[in-house]
Amino acid sequence: MTFLTKKQEMLARIEEYGRNLLAVFPRAAERDPVKLCKRLRRLEREAAAIGLQLSNGPEMSEGEQEQRVDTVLAKVNKLLGNRHEYQPKTGAKCSCKRGVQRDNCQDCEGTGLVIDFAAIRSRTPLVPVFVNLDPRGYALKIRDEWMAAHPAVRLPRDSGWYGILAPDLRD
Q: If you count Cβ atoms within 10 Å of the first and of the last residue's Cβ in the chain, which end, N or C, has fewer?
C-alpha cells in the first residue's frame, strides 16, 4: 500500500483536471495538463484582480475595465484554442470586379478571394468563456447554458451552475 504526500495528491488532482480541460478544449495551445492548469490559474488571478480593484479601488474607467477584461479573455481563448479564424479563404481569386460589384459579392464578401462558407458552418462552436467581476468567487467561468447542454463535461461548477475554468486545487 503506497501513500501519497499532500504535494503528490495535489499534482494528481491538477493533472486530472488538466486532462478534463483538454477534453473540453482539444485545440489548446498548451498540451501538458499541469502547465495548462498553472497558466490558467495565473490568468484567473489576473482576472480576479480586476474585480477586486472594481470593488475596493482605486477607481477605474469603464473603458480601462473593458480593455483589461478583453485582454485577459483574449489570452485565455488563445491558450485554450477557443477561437476561430475570421474567414477561411480558399486562395482562389473571385471572379467579381473591383468596386460596387466586389462590395456586393456573396462569394468573397469584398475580399477578392473566395471564402469557404462550408468550412465556417462546420466548425465546432466556441465554449462561451467569460470573466466574472464579482470578487467573491472565481473569475474565469463558462456560461451555465453551455454547461447544461453538455452534462458529460467534467469541470467543477459553482452554485449558479457556471463552469469554473481555473479552480484552486491545493486543498
A: N
